Amino acid sequence: MNRIGIICALYFEASAFTAIKPPAQQPVKLNEQAVLIVSGMGRDRAKRAAHKLVEENVGCLVSFGSAGALSPALKPGDLVQPEEVRDAARKYAVTSSLPALLRERLSEKNIAVPSGPLACTDKEVATNDAKLKLFEQTGAIAVDMESAGILDAAEHNGLPACVLRVITDTADMTLPDAILRRSDDFGEVNIPGLGIDLITSPGQIPDTLRLVKASRRAGTTMKLVARELLDNSRDHSFPDLSKRPN
Fold first, then answer.
1. pTM reported for the whole predicted model
2. I need a surface site. Which of 30, 50, 140, 157 has the fewest CB within 10 A?
C-alpha cells in the first residue's frame, strides 16, 4: 500500500497525531505507512512541505487541519471532506477520499462529514461579514489557507490527494484581533501578550472564550480522525485513500 504524507499547518493540528513537536518543514515518520510534516500557515509553505513529502516517496498527500465555516450549517467539530478546492485563480479537484469503513467509524462517533467546495485564501477570513461575502462569491462551505498549495503539488507530481478539514470558527464568529495579533505562523500564541491585549480590550474576551471552546471541540474531532487514519494505515485497510473517487 502507498504511504500517506500528512501536511498540517499548525502545531495544534499536528498534536492530533503526536505529542512530540516536530521541527518545522521536516518530515516525521508516524508509522511505516504515514509521514507527517508541519508546514506553517499559507499556500506556499504548504506546497513546499508537500514537495518534501514527495521526496519521502509517499503515494498520497493529505491536507489535514482546521478550517473556518462559511456555511451557516457547519458547527465546530464537523469534518469537511471537499471534492473541490477553489482559490482566486482556479479550481482543484480533490482526487482521493476517505474509505467508506472509516467514514462509518467516524459516524459512529457522531462526527458529521459534510461535503462541498472548500475555498483557499491568502489570509485569514476573520469576520462574519467577510465569511458571508466569500460564501456568496464562491459557494464554498468552508475556508482554509493551505489546501490549494497541497493539491497543486499533488497535481504536479501525479499523486492523489485528500483534504480533511475540521471546523473551528463558525460562519457567524469573528476572530478576535488579539488572537490574530498574538499568534505566529504555526498557531503558537504569545500568552502574556494576549493577556495584555485582553486586559486593555476586554470587549474581545467573549469572542476569545468562544473561539477557545470551539477549538477544543475541533481538537477532539482531529484526534479521533487522526487515530482512525493511523490505525487504518497500520492495518493496510484503507486503499481508497490512494485512489481517485469514482
1. 0.91
2. 157
